[in-house]
């Protein structure tokens, strides 16, 4: 799978460990930066990651910052992105199965490396369940869809 990974300065070392884990599993990983622990603004890297996923350059995104919160908000500003902040594998799997998440966020200061690897593994091996979740996911990128239009299209 083609995966983009990006962080802020607080997660540079965390990113390096997760990047190597992903590569060891055979994934093609694009590191969108930063390369050093010099202070940067997480929205810049969240936006880069979101664009890479939205453009189809990669299939999935991994967003990292100190807490995972700020960068997940930045990624989710893009209407084609569904980035879930996760801290354990069940949430990572459910983000894929129920929400068709195409990116996850993790907090380097809150999640240990082994737990983060387990989250990545769950995220990357779980398929979207579709079915009743499909119309709900459609609404995430199209807020103008109402319950009525969803019910009409399902009929």
Instruction: Please report the number of helical segments.
Output: 7
For the record, the CATH architecture stands as 3-Layer(aba) Sandwich
User: Outline, from the CA principal axes?
Assistant: globular
Largest sheet: 5 strands, parallel
Highest CATH level, the class: Alpha Beta
Structural class: alpha/beta
Number of domains: 1
- Helix and strand succession? EHEHEHEHEHHH
**Uncertain residue segments:** none
Relative strand content: 15-25%
Q: Kindly, what is the distance between the CA atoms of the first and last residues, rounded to a whole number of angstroms? A: 35 Å
What is the rounded Rg? 15 Å
CATH homology superfamily name: Sugar-phosphate isomerase, RpiB/LacA/LacB
CATH fold name, please?
Ribose 5-phosphate Isomerase B, Chain: A
Tell me the number of strands: 5
Which strand order do you get reading across the main beta sheet?
2-1-3-5-4
Q: What is the residue-mean pLDDT, rounded to a whole number? A: 94
Helical content, roughly? 40-55%
């Amino acid at each position: 799978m083609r995966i983009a990974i990006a962080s802020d300065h607080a997660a540079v070392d965390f990113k390096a460990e997760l990047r190597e884990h992903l590569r060891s599993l055979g994934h093609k990983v694009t590191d969108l930066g930063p390369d050093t622990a010099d202070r940067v603004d997480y929205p810049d890297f969240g936006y880069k990651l979101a664009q890479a996923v939205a453009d189809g350059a990669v299939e999935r995104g991994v967003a990292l910052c100190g807490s995972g919160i700020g960068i997940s908000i930045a990624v989710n500003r893009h209407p084609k992105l569904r980035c879930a902040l996760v801290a354990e594998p069940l949430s990572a799997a459910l983000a894929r199965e129920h929400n068709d998440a195409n990116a996850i966020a993790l907090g380097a200061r809150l999640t240990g490396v082994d737990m983060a690897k387990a989250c990545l593994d769950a995220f990357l091996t779980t398929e979207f369940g579709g079915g009743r979740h499909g119309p709900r996911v459609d609404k995430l990128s199209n807020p103008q869809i109402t319950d009525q239009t969803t019910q009409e299209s399902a009929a």
